[in-house]
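Recall the central idea of this unit: under ordinary conditions, the amino acid sequence of a chain determines the structure it adopts. In this exercise we apply that idea directly, starting from the sequence alone.
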Amino acid sequence: MTDTASTGVQQSFQFKSANVSLTALELYYFDNDEFEANLREKINQAPGFFKDIPLIISLEKYEGLDSELDFFKIIGTCRRHNIQVIGVRGGNEDQRRLARGASLALLPGSGQREKPQEPEAATEPESETQTGQPTGPAPARIINHPVRSGQQVHAPEGDVIVLGPVQAGAEILAAGNIHVYGPLRGRALAGIHGGESARIFCQSLEAELVSIAGHYKISEDLQDNGWKNAVQIQLRDDLLVVTPLDKA
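Accordingly, the structure predicted from this sequence is:
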């Protein structure tokens, strides 16, 4: 490995791993006019959530497997609504070739990650580091004050615990669970890396938006179920389910 001292060239950048929250658009079929109308409807439901988000187009449930997708039309429509398409997940070889031609990143389908692995020879336990010290779960991020409008709290590896209210316009993102010991009025996104077992707990559900592993509901969807009550929210069969804490 060369360095600045040996080459005399100053390094202008460095690669580092990054935990980024991404939203997937699960495409079933594509008609340009219907796509834009449906997209506009979704954005009108939660405009703050969709503004300038990076988006992945998921083709794992796409029905037109033999049809050519016009990714340039999809990208153009999304950009008109301030949504940035950055990649494609799944799809057949022809579709991935077209996506590559549109300068989109290619991500493996979820089926590739779900293949059972072959048994391996005995190795060091995964729960320990090379020094033999247990790694354990990531520690929770604890917030001891209210989360105010415009603030964002991000826990890329564990839970978030807020010992107070989350005001409207605030946002909580966690790889794990979210606990709010007060009213939840802003946005809460748990399981941001696809953790479908993540849950959201709050003392009073008044949220603008809640999401678990990319599945979301906005305030209009929540007001008929547990609104302004202590609840937990979890994902069951790809649906968000709200349950009063006293019945959990």
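The helical segments are 4-7, 32-45, 47-50, 71-80, 93-101, 110-113, 219-222.
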